[in-house]
Fold this protein.
Amino acid sequence: MEHQAVVEFVGPWTGPLVATSVHAGHDLRPEIAAAMTLPEADRFREEDPFTDLIAGAVESRMLTHRSRFEVDLNRPRREAVYRTPADAWDLDLWRDEALPDEAWRGSLAVWDEVYAALAPRLDEVADRGPFVLLDVHSYNHRRGGPAAGPEPLADNPDVNVGTGSVDRSRFGRLVERFVRDMASADLGCGPVDTRENVKFEGRQLAWWVHDRYPRVGCVLALEFKKTFMDEWTGVPDDAAIACARTNLAATLPGLTEELGRLR
């Protein structure tokens, strides 16, 4: 079986808006696939399938083809490879008790490769002025099992906007505009329950961008609730995916306008 590259960069990368979907990948390099005992359906459930389609609202983006179970690009390097069940929701992952050292080092090399490839592209974006990176993820909300109903709405917004490391003094107005536009009934496919930092606040990719490009880069870590698919069967809802993408696209003019105010 031919395995895809780790990541792929598409679009011109000439504007101030870019997107990633770092957990959308499902591929594994051969040595990882051979070592893994986790059933593919369980792995798929903990990945973020179809988020690359939602992120397609943005022309310039990084597509990730490898699974987070090979290397998690949204965790710090020291935590990026799931070696034991404790690293990954207590799932039994490997034929041996832990992932062998050689495979672990190979996965860390993948992490290094991706960030080394992303850096020069974002450097060029940052040289032109403030920018926004939309880091698109998804989250499960029926953890109780295939027959379980959805978890309470109070703690599970349609879209969680992670802004934990955003410089609010610089980008606060932009964040507020994004949340307002995403939630608006007048844009996209209708109103969306959009809230900040209820489920997640953003992690490694956001930290890395905000550290590398202070007061220039702004990462909005977006977690779409998996109402666009059945998280247990893996079956997508194509219309819901299209709506999520449309809703995200509807926020882009506002983001561009707010970035213009910062130049």
The helical segments are 30-35, 40-46, 51-55, 101-127, 168-183, 204-212, 238-261. DSSP finds seven helices and seven strands in the chain. The two ends are 48 Å apart (CA to CA).
